[in-house]
Design goal:
By secondary structure, the protein is mainly beta. Helix 4 crosses helix 8 and helix 5 crosses helix 6.
């Protein structure tokens, strides 16, 4: 069992660092800095000296100086109060003492980056440094073992990095630091200086504990806390960060790796207007230790944020925010991602138990939150868990594959020519035969198999009922089961059968749901309706991208004042709208949610890296092809004669023609008008006995013949043989059909 009531004394694992080299002892003081017992030199040629000018953002400058504002600027008088202690040679330096206005800087010269010997190890043994104009500790130039363009895919070894920091056993180290806004090189807009963190390194930095791992580092930051311009690793000791913006930031786009391997990390970030707990512009990899991180609770930020993969392979992780970024399914340790339908209040106790009531996890939140990521060795796959907030059981209505109670509510993009082949029109419910099995699709397809652990509808079929059907707040489930494919649970609210509150459901856009749109268009939300008289001030709307990566907006309905453009995204992507009663309402509870896309594709089984992606996207956005369910395209599913000719006709934008010469073609069926057109044009025929055989799979040779006839009739110069790769099998798959038709 892992129980965490937030304290500052939690133990960490063993440290990973020790020092055997001769140490230079630096004692800081506001009156006299000493080095090995002697007064520090003031000569820049010394291994350690005092008196360097501090780099800061000067006040009274115009726009040619840099990008800072008046709030970022400082006077020369304020800057001059700071004593800069500079280390200029490789070695091990044990540092203690106080600088109430100062900076510890490491600068081995511009050639150091390529010198494997240019390594400085700081052993922090009771330092207390405050800086009000710049970082309190900064590594300028040391050895950098990695290129800033080398993508290490989330795995990094910083044992030989030039910036080494060790937290001495039993030492309490305090760093109160500011930052330096972007300063231009003279006459250009290129960066000369920009140091966002209170504890900062321009090179990769490695932080470890000493032998027992009991040393502590407390960072209080006027902007960001602990920063590296390339990679950063935490290997031991205890690190506590209070930051106005991001707690930790590594900032090389698509490259940087933040790696947590051991020790204890506590981050309370976003104490200002915004800020993530941990923000990596590349990868975040957690292999061990204990990580507790909180983001700003008023902005769309997360306890975990990374532009590339977030991977959890070990340790204990508790991350709270408005929106945590999605953790990679390649993680070696089980994790659970919880997205609440409405904001949960600071002071709320989160509890996860197994079905026997054994407590797996308990945590009392210090800040408001809507998103929780938890991982530990106690968490197991294929095991049912129950979730409680302040002792009240919770349920969810969606996960990473779909929603319960009616599907995603997304429609084909505007301009589409029809619903999914063989599915009801938007808003209709399919008739269920006796026994609760889904109806057979007329083109011979079967509903996609649901992943293990995916909730099902009361009749036993998949919970999602198809694209174009708006969710109406299903009963949800209190059984949180992590599987190989399912880690994320959304639309979490109080369980309706145990809360004692009246259940409320919502509709949007007069029941039409949210319609997906093509690139360049904006999805429309024009109104929200509840089934009970809930005050607008108690209805919360949240829009996030799926999976959670970069977009999150949350408003109370009363704050929107009917201007829903404030919450709706514009960039291409897949999104989820959640409408819920706020958790503090004493009378009502309920949540409804919809998924929609802008550009892109709404299908979980089609990746942007797939060879057929652009072809499928082209035909989907034109309305020629839709999915086989709300979230699946089924690219490998063989194509029937009905689907093949319907897709071709939609793609060409033909005028349909009804036909009554086939016994097996129902009038006004989804494909009958296209069959009529194909027969009229001589592209296809029946079996000569009055049957068209719409459910028969179309072979590759038959598809070639159909297109050859079309090319001949249209006068096109396309060579049909070039449309069909030699690797095609006997029958044509949906992905292959999309690829072939996209070349016409």
């Amino acid at each position: 069992m892992f129980v965490f009531a937030l304290t500052m004394t939690s133990a960490c694992g063993p440290a990973l660092a020790s020092t055997t080299a001769k140490e230079t002892v630096i004692k800081l003081s506001d009156t006299a800095v000493t080095v090995d017992g002697q007064a520090a030199s003031t000569s820049s040629s010394a291994a350690v000296y005092t008196g360097a000018e501090i780099v800061y953002y000067e006040d009274g400058q115009d726009s040619s100086y840099g990008e800072g504002t008046a709030a970022d600027a400082h006077s020369a008088e304020e800057a001059d109060k700071h004593t800069v202690v500079t280390i200029t040679e490789p070695g091990v330096y044990r540092v203690s003492g106080t600088l109430s206005a100062g900076q510890l800087a490491i600068d081995l010269g511009e050639e150091a980056a390529s010198d494997p010997n240019a390594i400085v190890t700081l052993v922090l043994d009771g330092v207390d440094i405050t800086n009000t104009v710049a970082p309190a500790v900064i590594f300028y130039n040391v050895y950098e073992p990695y290129s800033s363009s080398e993508d290490l895919k989330g795995i990094v070894d910083l044992s030989n990095a030039g910036a080494q920091v060790i937290l001495a056993d039993d030492a309490i180290n305090t760093v109160n630091g500011s930052y330096v806004a972007r300063i231009y090189k003279e006459g250009t807009t290129k960066k000369l200086h920009k140091y966002d963190g209170a504890f900062y390194s321009k090179m990769s930095m490695n932080i470890s504990g000493e032998a027992q791992g009991t040393g502590e580092l407390h960072i209080t930051a006027a902007n960001e806390g602990l920063d590296s311009e390339l990679h950063l690793a935490l290997n031991g000791g205890k690190v506590y960060i209070e930051a106005q913006d991001d707690g930790i930031n590594t900032n090389e786009d698509g490259i940087s790796i933040t790696s947590i391997n051991n020790g204890y990390l506590y981050v309370n970030a976003g104490l200002g207007a915004e800020g993530d707990g941990i923000d990596s512009n590349g990868y975040l990899t957690i292999n061990g230790g204990t990580v507790v991180t909180m983001a700003n609770d008023r902005s769309p930020d997360g306890g975990l944020d990374a532009d590339k993969d977030i991977t959890i392979n070990g340790g204990t992780v508790i991350a709270l925010g408005t929106r945590n970024d999605a953790t990679s399914s390649t993680s070696e340790q089980p994790f659970i991602e919880l997205s609440f339908a409405s904001t949960q209040a600071a002071g709320s106790t989160i509890q996860l138990t197994d079905t026997e009531g054994n407590e797996i996890f308990e945590h009392t939140a210090e800040k408001n939150f809507q998103s929780v990521t938890f991982s530990s060795a106690d968490l197991q796959k294929d095991t049912e868990y129950n979730l409680y907030i302040n002792g009240v059981q919770q349920q969810y209505t969606g996960n990473s594959f779909g929603m319960m109670g009616g599907g995603f509510g997304g429609n084909p993009p505007s301009g589409g020519n029809g619903p999914m082949e063989g599915t009801p029109q938007a808003g209709e419910r399919p008739e269920m035969p006796d026994g609760g099995t889904p109806p057979e699709l007329p083109d011979g397809e079967t509903p996609p198999q649901m992943p293990e652990g995916m909730p099902t509808s009361p009749g036993g079929g998949p919970a999602s009922e198809g694209q174009g059907t708006a969710t109406e707040g299903g009963e949800g489930s209190t059984a949180f089961v992590i599987t190989e494919a399912t880690h994320s649970f959304s639309g979490i609210s109080e369980a309706t059968d145990t809360s004692g509150k009246t259940k409320v459901t919502f509709t949007v856009n007069d029941g039409a749901g949210i319609q997906s749109v093509v690139s360049g268009k904006k999805a429309v939300l024009s109104g929200v309706t509840a089934t009970a008289d809930v005050p607008d001030s108690d209805i919360q709307l949240t829009v996030t991208d799926v999976p959670s990566e970069s977009y999150s907006e949350t408003y109370l309905l009363s704050d929107l004042k009917n201007d829903f453009t404030q919450i709706m995204p514009e960039e291409d992507g897949q999104y989820q709208l959640v409408v819920a009663v706020v958790s503090s309402n004493k009378t009502y509870t309920g949540v409804s949610q919809w998924r929609f896309t802008i550009g892109g594709l709404p299908f979980t089984d089609v990746k942007s890296t797939d060879a057929s992606y652009e072809a499928i996207k082209q035909l989907y956005e034109s309305g020629a092809m839709n999915g086989t369910s709300a979230g699946e395209f089924s690219p490998d599913l063989p194509v029937t004669r009905a689907t093949a000719i319907t897709t071709l006709g939609r793609h060409l934008g033909i005028e349909q023609a009804q036909v009554d010469s086939f016994k097996d073609v129902a009038k006004d069926s989804w494909y009958s008008g296209y069959v009529g057109w194909a027969v009229e044009q001589g592209l296809m025929t029946g079996d000569g006995q009055g049957n068209f055989m719409p459910d028969t799979l179309v072979t590759t040779e038959q598809m070639k013949l159909i297109l050859s006839r079309y090319v001949e009739l249209s006068g096109s110069s396309v060579s049909v043989d070039t449309l069909f790769p030699s690797t095609m099998k006997e029958t044509v798959s949906r992905a292959e059909l999309a690829t072939i038709l996209s070349k016409l």
